[in-house]
Amino acid sequence: MAKDPYQYFRFEARELGETMGRGVLELERGGASAEAVLRLLRAAHTLKGAARVVKQAPIAAAAHAFEEVLAPYRERPDGIGKAEIAAMLARIDEIHTLVGALDAPATTTTAATTMTTTGATAVVSVAPVPAVEPLQHVRVELAEMDALGEDLSEVAVRLTAVRRLVEKLGRARTLESAAELRAALAAAERELCAGLDDADREMLQLRERAGRLRLLPAETLFAPLERAVRDASVALGRTARFHSLGGEVRLDAAVLAQMRDALLHVVRNSVTHGLEPEAERIARGKPPSGTITVEVARRDHRIAFRCHDDGRGIDGAAVRRAAVARGILEPSAAERLGPSESVRLILRSGVTTAPSVTELAGRGVGLDAVQAAVAQLGGEVAIESAPGSGTAVTLTVPVALSSLVVLAVEAAGVTASLPLDAVRRTVRVAEDEIVHGAEHDALVVDGEAVPFLPLATALRRPLAPGRRAEPWSAVLIEAGPLRGAVGVDRLVGTSTIVLRPLPRLAGSVPAVLGASLDADGNPQLVLDPPALVQATRAGRGAIADQPPVERRPVLVIDDSLTTRMLEQSILQSAGYDVELATSAEEGLELARQRRYSLFIVDVEMPGMNGFQFLDVVRGDSELRGTPAILVTSRNSPDDKRRGRQAGARAYIVKSEFHQGRLLETIRELVG
């Protein structure tokens, strides 16, 4: 594969282009100073030189043209006017386009959905959208790279120790005494196991740190959004300020890339069709300049991107009339719609009240393009509007990866984490301090009765015999206006984790927000505060007092850590005693040591595969009576037939996995 000659130049050019863009907008906002002009000239000069090195003359020419516009104002920055700002931004756009062309053939520009309300008229329209650079690179803090380097060094040390141990094993072959040889081998085995465990732990920690490098601060979105607000307001002869909040929230780069494209549509709508002209704003007692605010915030296990303008709001009656005129609604149905339902009509394609089609309005495409983009991430769009006060569009999507500060706790042998921003306090509670009510148990905290539930019960795990007689560490959780308390065995401590979504095949796991990996690489549950608070109020404390039931033993055999831990979580929550094996060979060894009620086996594994495992089981008089379920990604008719021939009682395809159906199948086989 040929080496990419522009690999480093593309990254540098994008960085310099973004720096130049932010600097020009700062000049336009009134931040003109000799130092600001000098910074911009340095960035343009650096870009020009880099472009010449890689023989990209058009990019060098565009950077030089930028310098030519700005250079006369080095000593008198206050003289920079609108024409100069526009000329510099045009050169930056040209640079972005040329740099983008180094990746792939130029793509056609798409259309942005826009919305307007002019006086009493609601308009849904479409406007051209300039191409936007994809988020292909991430910026990394030096501290993160230093930590990654330390992990790599630690792994190297561990591996060096293992190599030295191998050398010792080689020398052991020269020992003449069998007793000395056995002793040397036993010592080497202990050291080797310890060394490999340490190396494995360091490697998993290294992987976790590397995963965090994918996370970008939400402020990455703000520069292109501010530019879009600026361009739309200039095109309409209006003034608009851009305000941003929540830039410190760190998210997966893929989520930010898709949300940026959707938000570009939304902010253009807000300026083009939400903000009034200056004269109209002054007449209404508003500031001449409108304000567009974009806020990014975490809401439980989702991320909300909220764009609010202080414009005229949406005229619901006009939208209803437009929907009737387009044949989308019957007049009688339109009359029955309330204000919020009327506003949501703008999400429908074809709704427009513009008297004519222009470049910016009248096509009636609607916000369905934004809604479709958000839907691809499993999210939703909400719109709020108050006549005369403005409109807020909120795009809410599930978390893919994000950084989260948590409190780790331990309950019934399970270590789990709670988002720290939902934890209000922790208290030590004796059994006689718990108020046992008819509906639920409660603690009295600061004069308020707070519903209480053992965390083990919320996770559907049995309490150890006599556990209720011992003191609890109670964690007080707040979710909106409601509070609840969960009892845990131990507070482990706080840390920053990378929150990961549960795999799609996990289905619904009660009170769980997602998962993270601990220092040893084991998945840990991250709990959902609102769900826990609701569980405390549901009054299910009596569940823990029920007599223990027999927990049927199940052996899960899978080489995938994620699948093993997921299936273990599902089965343990359903009351089964679960053991794990990482290979078919290990599974056979365990199966010959203990009688299991069921085998759950992956098909594709290194060494012996799942089909071969069942062939061996079927030929063993002690094991052949144990039913087996194959869980695999292979779904061809031949594979399913092979599974039946091997003796599998059920064949579950991972892409069609459903937690409820798995448990139903298990109950049919073993009860």
Describe this structure in words.
The protein has 5 domains: 7-101, Four Helix Bundle (Hemerythrin (Met), subunit A); 142-213; 217-398, Histidine kinase-like ATPase, C-terminal domain (Heat Shock Protein 90); 402-545, OB fold (Dihydrolipoamide Acetyltransferase, E2P) (Beta Barrel), CATH 2.40.50; 553-670, 3-Layer(aba) Sandwich (Rossmann fold), CATH 3.40.50. The chain is built from 20 helices and 25 strands. Helix 1 (7-28) packs antiparallel against helix 2 and helix 5 (142-172) runs antiparallel to helix 6. The longest helix has 35 residues, at 178-212. The model is unreliable at 104-134, 353-366 and 540-549 (pLDDT under 50).
Topology of this structure?
Blueprint: H1 7-28, H2 34-53, H3 57-70, H4 82-101, E1 111-118, E2 121-128, H5 142-172, H6 178-212, E3 215-217, H7 222-235, E4 240-245, E5 250-252, H8 253-274, H9 278-283, E6 290-299, E7 302-309, H10 316-325, H11 331-336, H12 339-343, H13 368-375, E8 380-386, E9 390-398, E10 402-411, E11 414-419, E12 423-429, E13 435-436, E14 441-445, E15 448-454, H14 455-458, E16 472-479, E17 482-488, E18 490-499, E19 512-517, E20 523-527, H15 529-537, E21 553-557, H16 561-573, E22 577-581, H17 584-591, E23 598-601, H18 610-618, E24 628-632, H19 637-646, E25 650-653, H20 659-670
Parallel strand pairs: 4-6, 11-20, 15-17, 21-22, 21-23, 23-24, 24-25
Antiparallel strand pairs: 1-2, 3-5, 6-7, 7-9, 8-9, 10-11, 10-18, 12-16, 13-14, 14-15, 16-17, 19-20
